[in-house]
Amino acid sequence: MKKIGLTLLLTATMTFATMVSFNGAPVTLNSNGLKVGDSAPAFNATTIEFTDTVVGGKKNKVQVIAFVPSLDTRTCRIETIEFNKKIANMSNVLLTIVSKDLPFTQQRFCRDNSITNIETVSDYKDANNALRYGTTISAPAFLEGFFGRVIYIVDTKGKIAYVQVVKEIADQPNYDQVVRALKNIR
Asked: How does DSSP assign 66-119, residue by residue?
């Protein structure tokens, strides 16, 4: 009986969730996430100045929305610094790093790492935003509520144009694929 229940649970999880890993251990994101062509839900997040800003939805620039676990980790730090460099010369692109770090932490991080070309925002008030995008970790319990490493590109009409789910959370995203995708969207 236990074997049947476990099989059903695993089947349901695989059907309605994305499986990734953290240092080789299995990790479940809360859903299969958004797909190319889906509408990118607009949501409010908090800037480093403690003001609300809208992420996603329709805008006059192409948006890159990168969900990360925490700017206080080595991988997230490198990712944010790399994106800051790569987006510097792209005038029609708004890149937003979304984490649950408090704005105080994000502000210090941006200052200490000369982050000036991208926006970091906190989803600490309403982590349901990440749930809508399918980026919240639902298992294992010690990572529950953190975000997986997922990147969405949203066109100016508010539609998902590109998705990259980093299968090993401790790994960097493929920056070249993101930049190529941006060049094809503009």
From this structure: EE-S-TTSHHHHHHHHHHHHHHTT-TTEEEEEEESS-HHHHHHHHHHTT--SSE
* CA–CA gap between residue 129 and residue 40 (Å, rounded): 11
For the segment 127-163, what is each residue's pLDDT rounded down to a tens digit? 677 888 989 888 999 899 889 999 999 999 999 999 9
CA distance 167 to 39: 23
Nearest residue to 160 (alpha-carbon basis) of 18, 20, 59, 57: 57
Most confident by average pLDDT, 16-25, 34-43, 121-130 = 34-43
Catalytic annotation on 110? no
Total-model pTM: 0.89
Of 40, 76, 161, 182, which residue is the catalytic one?
A: 76
Domains of the chain in start order, with CATH, are 2-185 (3.40.30.10)
Is the bond leading into 41 cis (omega within 30 degrees of zero)?
A: no
The phi-psi region of residue 57 (left if phi > 0; otherwise alpha if psi is between -120 and 50; otherwise beta) is: left
In eight-state DSSP terms, residue 183 is H
